[in-house]
Amino acid sequence: MAHANLEKGELIVQVKQQIALANAQEMLSKMTEKCFKKCISKPGKALDNSEQRCITQCMDRFLDTWNLVSRTYGNRLQREQVKQMHTGGELN
């Protein structure tokens, strides 16, 4: 029985890692698309200085926002779990 629980735990860890990787890939794709549309007016062989600055600032803002939303969501989940433990109710 302990062996089955270990395998289940390992499977859960692998699934969580795959979900995290998929989320990171989706975030990178969205950030690239959004910042390219915002900053690159005439695609060419190289970025000029203003395009480079725009891309850098856009990516920084996108990542800051992503981190804020992730922290806020994580905090909410923790509050809900604590609430559930105290009330014995289900998560909403």
From TrEMBL:
Belongs to the small Tim family. One of its GO terms (cellular component) is mitochondrial inner membrane. It is found in: Mitochondrion inner membrane. This is Mitochondrial import inner membrane translocase subunit. The lineage of its organism: Eukaryota, Metazoa, Ecdysozoa, Arthropoda, Hexapoda. It is a peripheral membrane protein. It comes from the Eukaryota. Mitochondrial intermembrane chaperone that participates in the import and insertion of some multi-pass transmembrane proteins into the mitochondrial inner membrane. Also required for the transfer of beta-barrel precursors from the TOM complex to the sorting and assembly machinery (SAM complex) of the outer membrane. Acts as a chaperone-like protein that protects the hydrophobic precursors from aggregation and guide them through the mitochondrial intermembrane space. Heterohexamer. One of its GO terms (molecular function) is metal ion binding. Keywords: Chaperone, Disulfide bond, Membrane, Metal-binding, Mitochondrion, Mitochondrion inner membrane, Protein transport, Translocation, Transport, Zinc. It comes from Drosophila rubida.
